[in-house]
Structure formats: structure tokens, C-alpha cells
Design goal:
The structure is a homodimer.
Chain A (H helix, E strand, L loop, with lengths): L5 H12 L6 H12 L6 H11 L5 H13 L3 E4 L7 E4 L6 E5 L5 E4 L2 H13 L2 E14 L2
Parallel strand pairs in A: 3-5
Antiparallel strand pairs in A: 1-2, 3-4
The structure holds a DNA duplex.
Chain lengths: 141, 141
DNA sequence: AATAAGAATGATAACGATTCTCAAAGATAA
DNA sequence: TTATCTTTGAGAATCGTTATCATTCTTATT
């Protein structure tokens, strides 16, 4: 039996793997991110991280998010209104539907759209470095 | 022969048509927007408007841009990095390619992509209210 | 385990883009 | 022309985020 939680070990390993120095704050924040199945902003992540590691400051949350982003561990999204929101990098690329009434975020993926994007760019003499596709939607009921 | 410029008359008419009160500042800003073939931000629009009407303040530029947006006269875009950028509402809807090296903005339009978006949303029980599609690209040479 | 060197941290100031406040000036309709 | 209501300029305030800096912590090396 170890004194360290399973999550701590996992996050430590993940940080080392990404070549990022391991600190209590980073373990806490990465744990929070791994647990989140929504797309929280920095302030929300700060709230959650404080429950695990009360000393984390908002400045460190922002700094760590940038570090994790550079390390390819998280993605930053700048949806309309409010600040940036984050999610851990998982399997395949996806885009987002945003429910304009509830603020809920749904992920989707379409090879067809990706192909069309490449095609359009190519025809204009460009290649796509990255893109942003957000559908602001309302539930049809 | 009129003492008023042709542009002034046109902008005045456009404002009245949109049900927006006519002021010197608004005429100037709308004239600048109509002339712009790029996608300037508020500060840039302020610079240009001051050449026509030196008294315009940045606050009024922001206020007027919101009014014009509500009136459907201009569109506001929040591209990555920096502040919002604006363009007059012209003919058909379009999306944007952004040259990541030069900052240049190219417009494009694809019915196919629009259709696919609607389809994807529909399948998930949503209808698209509006969307954001930006391709961050590099010239292939 | 002790250490040295560099990196990360918390607190808070600073920042850029945008909005708000409020008294003064202006536009519109009667 | 007047009365009413809107818009304006100047600057303060706000929001999300980044920078500063002295202190604390990680890490690699003993």
C-alpha cells in the first residue's frame, strides 16, 4: 500500500513523459483536467484544483495550462463569450457544437468536412495549419 | 452642387434605413467601414475615422460598432489573437482563411460545408443558429 | 542525505480589449 | 424653437490574462 493516491502517480508519470517538471500544483491541475468531462475555464479549474491542493494560485493555473498546452497535453479553446476553456488531449481531433441556451459543449468529428477544408484551402494556394469550427446550436424538439 | 459629399449622403441613407440615428461620428465610421476591403479592428477603425471626423472617440467607435452590428450593417469576427475585427455585411455569407504568416484574411464560401454542418447538427438533435469556421493556413509555394 | 543551480510559485501589479459612467452636446419630432 | 430623449467624449472600471519579483521547491550531483 502506497501513501500516494493512484491519480497522483498517474499524473506524475504523465508529466514526466511530457518532459514537464513535477510539482504538487501541476499534479493537482492535471488530475482535475483528467477528471473533467466538460470544458472548464481557468477560474473553474482553479476552484477544482484548490480542493486537492489548496495552495494553487490562479497565476499558476494559467502558467501550467500554457505549459501543458505546449507539451501537447491539453487543448485550449476560445469559444464565443468569456475566457478560454480547456480539455485534455484525447484520441482524435474533433470540433464542437455549443448549445446557445445551456452553454453545453458537444464534440463531433467529420472527415468529410476536414477533407473539404483541405480542398478549399488547396484551391486557393494554401494548406491548413489548423482550423476552428464551432456550431452554435439550439436543440430541435 | 451640394456641400455634402456623396459618401455622406449614402451613409446617412444607410443609417436611416437601418433605423439608426444619424450623427457625424456614425457617418464617418460607416464611411470608413464601407471603404475598407480588409478586416480592421476597433483601434484601426478609430484611426481612419479620425481622419474624416477628428472628434470621434474610441468609446464611440466601440458603441457604434455594436449598434451597427445589431442593425445588421456590420459583422464582428473574433479571430485568434488580438481584438475583434469588423467588416460591412455584404451579399452572401462567407467564412475566412487566415494566413498565419502575413495575417491576411481571405474569404471563401462553401455550400457543401454548410450543408454538412446542418446535417451533423440535425443528427445530434440540434439546429445551427450560427457558426464559426476559420482556416489558419500557410501559402503552398 | 546535503548541496548547488535553475525552475516554479504566490501575491500582486500591469496589460489590452472592451464596457461603463456621467455631465455636456446633439438629433429628432412636435 | 422647444422639449425629449439619444449620443457623445473623457476617463474610470472591468475582465481575462500575463508579467514581475522575491521566496520556495525540483532536480541532478555529490
Amino acid at each position: 500500500m502506497s501513501g500516494e493516491s493512484d491519480t497522483t502517480e498517474k499524473m506524475t508519470a504523465a508529466l514526466r513523459k511530457a518532459g514537464i517538471r513535477v510539482t504538487r500544483q501541476r499534479i493537482a491541475l492535471l488530475g482535475v483536467l483528467a477528471d473533467a468531462d466538460d470544458h472548464p475555464d481557468a477560474v473553474e479549474l482553479h476552484e477544482r484544483a484548490k480542493l486537492i491542493e489548496p495552495s494553487v494560485s490562479l497565476a499558476t493555473v494559467y502558467r501550467t495550462l500554457s505549459v501543458l498546452e505546449e507539451g501537447g497535453v491539453v487543448h485550449r479553446h476560445a469559444f464565443q463569450g468569456g475566457g478560454a476553456r480547456f480539455e485534455t488531449t484525447h484520441e482524435e481531433h474533433h470540433d464542437h457544437i455549443l448549445d446557445v441556451d445551456t452553454g453545453e459543449v458537444i464534440e463531433f468529428q467529420s472527415d468529410k468536412i476536414e477533407q473539404l477544408q483541405d480542398e478549399i484551402a488547396r484551391d486557393l494556394g494554401y494548406e491548413v495549419v489548423h482550423h476552428r469550427l464551432e456550431l452554435y446550436c439550439r436543440k430541435t424538439r
